[in-house]
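Hey Z.,

So I finally got round to the sulfopyruvate thing we talked about over coffee. Here's the setup:
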Amino acid sequence: MKIVYLGMTADIMHPGLINIINEASKHGEVLVGLLTDSAIAHYKRMPYLTYEQRKMIVENVRNVSRVVPQEEWSYVPNLLKYKPDYIIHGDDWVEGPLKDIREDVIKAMEQIGGSIIEIPYTKGINSSSLDRDIKVIGTTPDVRLKSLRRLLHAKPLVRILEAHNGLCGLIIESLEIQKGNRLLSFDGIWSSSLTDSTSKGKPDIEAVDLTTRMQDLNNILECTTKPIIYDGDTGGKPEHFAFTVRTLERNGISAVIIEDKVGLKKNSLFGTEVAQQQATIEEFCEKIQTGKRAAITDDFMIIARIESLICGGTISNALERALAYIDAGADGIMIHSKDKSGSDIKEFCHLLREKNTAIPIVVVPTTYNSIYEQELQSWGANIVIYANHMLRAAYPAMVKAATSILNNERSTEAGEICMPIKQILELIPGTK
Ligand code: SPV
Ligand code: MG
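And the result:
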């Protein structure tokens, strides 16, 4: 019996996939190379279902003989390993982002003496259109909560952007750009204390309470499915932090980040311009432990944020704290700095990685914004948070439109810098 290789994600089973499986089975035994989460995550959004769930489904489809993991986006390593007689693929890869993948497959099949079967792509039904339908159905708190840990497992660097209302959340949820053979998007949402406060006309000093922030967060939860990381400021008193953890976890938030400061908290980007006091290692460890005890699941993450470099302290102080916080149970370390070069963060990451290879490291490159993601990743960072850009982009645009109306005493000119009425009416499904 000949072997026919078929690579697939199989996150959503649809007639197009059944069709290709059936076509494949006409030529021999169907060997499905099922793409793992990490094979996919660099190129496309993460599947809704885990690898094990997808495997169970595909194994039970008639005409599938065997399912093996495909650990890479490219089919080539598996083709060389399993040496199938044929590989089957839809003809949608002749042009477009999968073109290079096809070229590599042609060479690999020549090398192993096999051939390629291309079948007409099933029009009208595909994973992308079903993906849109799934987004409309939404998610559950449990699935959303777990998704950050899944992403950390699947991707070397998880990309997070700030949202302070549902509209920002929708942008993060749905914006995708095709860059070469990769489909780029944001992996999740940062609920920032700075932008939550600023959008209410309040200073970033823990003046907006959890209940109020949860009301806004609820709007984001309602129209998105991606994981959310909550900026918990100092976490408040340990006794209060326990309730915060429970509330966030119950709502499907994936992680809270608390910073090791005490007293009246001021925004970190002031650095030493304002008085900011760091907690002692012991008291902050106690807060982490209290939070960990309060959490119901192992999936919810408590990430310790180190403010040594913000408060004028040394890298070795930051490292000492990181190790103590990890010992106390922190599920991740965020290191912050307002240095423009990023060299202090780089050094910290290297030193921490020498001591601990596994703990997720979070960076917030607001000031060292010239550093590309690829480089942050090479330092050992696992999560990059773009912490305030949606608000900072919106505010000047609003001031510009308001100024134009005042200047012109009419709105024709402002209209030119605004989105068309038709577009805003169609922006949110169901407005009509
Ligand atoms: C926030 O976004 O509120 C943060 C990050 O805590 S920073 O503003 O840089 O302190
Ligand atoms: Mg903050």
